[in-house]
Design goal:
alpha+beta, eight-stranded antiparallel beta sheet, elongated
Length: about 160
Amino acid sequence: MITKGRAILDGNRFMTLGTANTDGEPWASPVFYVADGYSTFYWISSPEATQSRNIAVRPRIGIVVFNSQQVPGSGEAVYMAATAGELTGRELDRGLEIYLGAAPFSKGPEVFRPPGGYRAYRATITEHFMLCPQASSQPCPVHGRTSDHRMAVLL
């Protein structure tokens, strides 16, 4: 599972952020990411984007990374729980160094500082999950469930 989870994160560049506003209304947003290992993810977004406004008031988020071209039923994805926030100060400098070193972004770092229109964000992963491997319609040998279910993994 560890090898497969890492391959999924290494082989994709978009993750879907799951955020919620102050009323708990959910919002899903695909964003291009750059990972620093398997527990820190960076992305760029407008501070006015719904996901950015949601993170400002509710920093706990969910993330999923998957290959949208995979065969239906293969269930290969990494699900993550995280704490996210906009980067400032030294954290911003480090985040931009990582992000701009790997991302095809044509603008310089000045657009990520006020009054620029974008900001750098970081998600610090608190837990990784993957679907428990089981044969279709067969009980999971570990949990006995026949439905899809997640299990915690250490990546």
